[in-house]
Amino acid sequence: MLLMRHSEAGFGITGSDIDRSLTHAGMADSRAAGTWLADEVGPVDLVLCSSSARTRQTWRGMTAGGASGTEVSELEEIYDGGADDLLDLVHGIPDSVRTALVLGHSPGIPTLAHRLAADGSGSDDTRRAFGHGFPTSTIVRLAVDRSWIDLDAGQADLVTVVTPRA
C-alpha cells in the first residue's frame, strides 16, 4: 500500500482551494515521484485519487515520470477526508488489488500513515524520515498482509518513506 501527499501547489488569488494547481516545482516533483514509483514499486493495481486539481495533476505528472496504474478513481471523499474516511475507502478495496495508492492531502494522508504503521517497523532511517513531517510529494510504502477490509491501526509494516524531488 502506498499513501502519498500531492505535490506542491500554488496559492491563487481567486478560485477555490479544490481548484489550486501545482507549481512548476510541484510538476517536476510529481514526475520524480512517478520515476521512483516505476523503479521501486512498478505498476499499481488501483489509484484512489482526490478530485482536487492538484492531486489529479500530481498523478498525471507521475505518469509522465513512468508511473502506471491499472485503474484510477477520482473521489471527492479524499479531498476533505480525515484518516477515518480514508480508512473506510481502503476497507472497500477489492481483495484482488495487491498494490493500491491513495493520493490525497494533509492531514488525512499523514494521519492515516501514522495510524496504520506498526510500532517499531521499518529501518532506523525510515522511522526517522517518518517522524520528520510529511512534506508535499511524500510517499509512504506500507506492507499489508491481510485483507483490505481487515486493515486497522498498527497492522501494516513501514517499508519506506521517500520525498522525491526533481
TrEMBL record:
It comes from the Bacteria. SUPFAM superfamilies: Phosphoglycerate mutase-like (SSF53254). InterPro entries: His_Pase_superF_clade-1, His_PPase_superfam. Pfam families: His_Phos_1. This is Phosphohistidine phosphatase. It comes from Arsenicicoccus piscis.
